[in-house]
C-alpha cells in the first residue's frame, strides 16, 4: 500500500542524490528544464527498486549532448532521432548511473504502421499526458524537487488502478502495444485495470497486428518475468488480445461436454505456471526469472485441443498431445521471433513433459534413468521443475505418491551421476605402462598396482605421469 509521506521522502532523496543534483544544476545553468519521469517516480512512491533512470527536458538532443558530455564518462545517441541521449554519469565512491534523457515529445501516429511522426514539445505537462498510464505520467522536477502529476497518477497509485491519461481508445490507437503493457503492469504492480480501459482493449485487440512481432514478444517476456504473471495472462485472454498473437492459450478453454469430464486445461496450465515459478524460487533462490521454463509451463498442454477424443463411457483422451504441442509451440514461437535456443528448449520440454509419469507407474532400470537424463540433456533441471509443477491433482494421496516418485528419480539420477563420475576417473598410468615400468607380466600384481594408482588419483588428484611413476616405483620397492 502507498504511504504518501514515505513516498515523498523517497522522491526527495532521489532528487537530491549526487548524480541527479549535478544533472539538474547543469541543465538549469544552461537555461533548460529537467525532470525524472515515469517508472522511477512511480517506483519511488511505491517503495520499489528501479533499474532505469529516465529523464525528460525541453532541451533538444544537440543541447542535451552538449550539457551532459562534461559530466559523463560515456554518451550514446542511438536514439537521437527520437530525442533520446544516453549517458553514464559517475557518482561518489566509484559509483555511476546510466541515464536516458529525452526531449519533451508531442508525437502522433499514423494508425497503420504504428510508426510515430516525431515532434518535440515544449511543456512537461503535455509530454506527460501522451504517456501510457496515469501512474507512469508523473515527473519529478530537478534541481528543486517538485512533483508534477497532471492526470491523477497519485490517486490511481493509492487506488491500485491502471488507466490511460485520456480516452483509452485514443491512447491504444496511438500505440496498440500499450494494451499488452496494461496486462504486464497489472501483474508487475498487482493493480487492477479500469473497466473502460479493459473495454477499449477488447474493442481494439485486432490493432495489435500492426505492432512488430519482436515488440509483442518483448512485452510477453516482461510479463512472464514478473513474480505473478497469471493476472496479466487472464486479462489478455479475457479481452481477446491473447488470441491475436498467441491463440493456443485461449484455445485451452475447452468446451465442457456434460457426458465427458476432464480437468479444465486452461486453469490447469495457469496453475502449472504458478507452481513452476514457486519451484523456481525454491530451488534457485535469487536467480533471474527463467522465462524459458515459464513459457514451457504455460504452453505444455497446447496440443490437447487438437488431440482431444471423447471415449465411450465418459472418458477423454489426449493421445500424443505432447508431440502435437511441441510442434504448435515451435511454429508460434518462430512467428513471435523468439531466438532458436529458446524455441528448441521450450519445444523439447513440452515434448518430454510426460516422460516421468511412466516412472511413477513402475520402477525403471538404471538404463532407463540414464536415457531420461540423456534425452533431457541441458534441460534436465527445467524438466524436473516442469514435471513436478504439472501435478495439480486435488487427490492428496495421488499427489504425495507422485512427489515421492519424483524424489526417487532425482535421487537415482544423482547417485548414478556420482557413480559414473567415479567410474570415469582413471589412473594417470595405464596397465601396459605399469608392466613396462615394473618389468612384470600381466597378472594379479598389475591389478594391485593399478588400484594403488587409482587410490592415489582419488586421494591427491592429478599429479602428472612422472610423479605418478615415481610413486609407483616407491610403492613397488616397499613391497620388496
Automatic annotation (TrEMBL):
<keyword id="KW-0548">Nucleotidyltransferase</keyword>
<feature type="domain" description="HD">
    <location>
        <begin position="265"/>
        <end position="375"/>
    </location>
</feature>
<keyword id="KW-0692">RNA repair</keyword>
<keyword id="KW-0694">RNA-binding</keyword>
<dbReference type="InterPro" id="IPR003607">
    <property type="entry name" value="HD/PDEase_dom"/>
</dbReference>
<dbReference type="InterPro" id="IPR014065">
    <property type="entry name" value="tRNA_adenylyltransferase"/>
</dbReference>
<dbReference type="InterPro" id="IPR032828">
    <property type="entry name" value="PolyA_RNA-bd"/>
</dbReference>
<keyword id="KW-0547">Nucleotide-binding</keyword>
<keyword id="KW-0808">Transferase</keyword>
<dbReference type="Pfam" id="PF01743">
    <property type="entry name" value="PolyA_pol"/>
</dbReference>
<dbReference type="InterPro" id="IPR006675">
    <property type="entry name" value="HDIG_dom"/>
</dbReference>
<dbReference type="Pfam" id="PF01966">
    <property type="entry name" value="HD"/>
</dbReference>
<keyword id="KW-0819">tRNA processing</keyword>
<protein>
    <submittedName>
        <fullName>CCA tRNA nucleotidyltransferase</fullName>
    </submittedName>
</protein>
<dbReference type="Pfam" id="PF12627">
    <property type="entry name" value="PolyA_pol_RNAbd"/>
</dbReference>
<dbReference type="GO" id="GO:0042245">
    <property type="term" value="P:RNA repair"/>
</dbReference>
<keyword id="KW-0067">ATP-binding</keyword>
<dbReference type="InterPro" id="IPR006674">
    <property type="entry name" value="HD_domain"/>
</dbReference>
<dbReference type="GO" id="GO:0005524">
    <property type="term" value="F:ATP binding"/>
</dbReference>
<dbReference type="InterPro" id="IPR002646">
    <property type="entry name" value="PolA_pol_head_dom"/>
</dbReference>
<dbReference type="GO" id="GO:0003723">
    <property type="term" value="F:RNA binding"/>
</dbReference>
<dbReference type="InterPro" id="IPR050124">
    <property type="entry name" value="tRNA_CCA-adding_enzyme"/>
</dbReference>
<dbReference type="InterPro" id="IPR043519">
    <property type="entry name" value="NT_sf"/>
</dbReference>
<keyword id="KW-0460">Magnesium</keyword>
<dbReference type="GO" id="GO:0046872">
    <property type="term" value="F:metal ion binding"/>
</dbReference>
<keyword id="KW-0479">Metal-binding</keyword>
<dbReference type="GO" id="GO:0016779">
    <property type="term" value="F:nucleotidyltransferase activity"/>
</dbReference>
<dbReference type="GO" id="GO:0008033">
    <property type="term" value="P:tRNA processing"/>
</dbReference>
Amino acid at each position: 500500500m502507498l504511504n504518501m509521506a514515505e513516498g515523498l521522502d523517497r522522491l526527495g532523496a532521489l532528487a537530491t542524490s549526487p548524480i541527479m543534483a549535478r544533472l539538474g544544476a547543469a541543465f538549469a545553468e544552461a537555461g533548460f528544464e529537467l525532470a525524472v519521469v515515469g517508472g522511477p517516480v512511480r517506483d519511488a512512491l511505491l517503495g520499489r527498486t528501479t533499474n532505469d533512470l529516465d529523464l525528460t527536458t525541453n532541451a533538444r538532443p544537440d543541447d542535451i549532448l552538449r550539457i551532459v558530455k562534461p559530466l559523463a564518462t560515456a554518451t550514446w545517441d542511438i536514439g537521437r532521432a527520437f530525442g533520446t541521449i544516453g549517458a553514464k554519469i559517475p557518482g561518489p565512491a566509484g559509483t555511476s548511473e546510466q541515464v536516458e534523457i529525452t526531449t519533451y515529445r508531442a508525437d502522433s501516429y499514423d494508425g497503420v504502421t504504428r510508426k510515430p511522426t516525431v515532434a518535440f514539445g515544449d511543456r512537461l505537462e503535455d509530454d506527460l499526458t501522451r504517456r501510457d498510464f496515469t501512474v507512469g505520467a508523473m515527473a519529478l522536477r530537478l534541481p528543486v524537487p517538485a512533483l508534477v502529476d497532471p492526470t491523477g497518477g497519485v490517486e490511481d497509485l493509492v487506488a491500485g488502478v491502471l488507466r490511460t491519461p485520456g480516452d483509452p481508445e485514443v491512447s491504444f490507437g496511438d500505440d496498440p502495444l500499450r494494451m499488452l503493457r496494461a496486462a504486464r503492469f497489472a501483474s508487475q504492480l498487482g493493480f487492477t485495470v479500469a473497466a473502460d480501459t479493459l473495454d477499449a482493449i477488447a474493442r481494439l485487440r485486432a490493432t495489435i497486428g500492426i505492432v512488430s512481432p519482436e515488440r509483442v514478444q518483448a512485452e510477453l517476456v516482461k510479463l512472464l518475468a514478473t513474480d505473478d504473471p497469471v493476472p496479466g495472462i487472464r486479462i489478455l485472454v479475457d479481452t481477446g488480445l491473447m488470441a491475436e498473437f498467441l491463440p493456443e492459450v485461449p484455445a485451452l478453454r475447452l468446451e465442457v461436454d456434460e457426458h465427458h469430464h476432464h480437468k479444465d486445461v486452461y486453469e490447469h496450465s495457469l496453475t502449472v505456471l504458478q507452481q513452476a515459478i514457486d519451484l523456481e524460487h525454491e530451488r534457485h533462490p535469487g536467480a533471474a526469472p527463467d522465462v524459458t521454463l515459464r513459457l514451457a509451463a504455460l504452453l505444455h498442454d497446447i496440443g490437447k485441443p487438437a488431440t482431444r477424443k471423447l471415449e465411450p463411457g465418459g472418458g477423454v483422451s489426449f493421445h500424443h498431445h505432447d508431440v502435437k504441442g511441441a510442434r504448435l509451440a515451435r511454429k508460434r514461437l518462430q512467428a513471435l521471433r523468439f531466438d532458436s535456443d529458446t524455441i528448441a528448449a521450450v519445444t523439447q520440454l513440452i515434448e518430454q513433459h510426460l516422460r516421468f509419469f511412466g516412472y511413477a507407474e513402475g520402477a525403471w532400470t538404471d538404463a532407463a534413468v540414464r536415457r531420461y537424463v540423456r534425452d533431457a540433456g541441458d534441460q534436465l533441471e527445467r524438466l524436473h521443475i516442469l514435471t513436478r509443477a504439472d501435478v495439480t491433482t486435488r487427490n492428496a494421496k495421488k499427489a504425495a505418491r507422485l512427489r515421492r516418485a519424483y524424489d526417487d528419480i532425482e535421487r537415482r539420477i544423482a547417485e548414478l551421476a556420482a557413480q559414473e563420475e567415479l567410474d570415469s576417473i582413471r589412473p594417470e598410468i595405464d596397465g601396459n605402462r605399469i608392466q613396462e615400468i615394473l618389468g612384470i607380466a600381466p597378472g594379479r600384481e598389475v591389478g594391485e598396482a593399478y588400484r594403488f594408482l587409482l587410490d592415489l588419483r582419488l586421494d591427491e588428484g592429478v599429479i602428472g605421469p612422472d610423479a605418478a611413476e615415481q610413486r609407483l616405483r616407491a610403492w613397488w620397492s616397499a613391497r620388496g
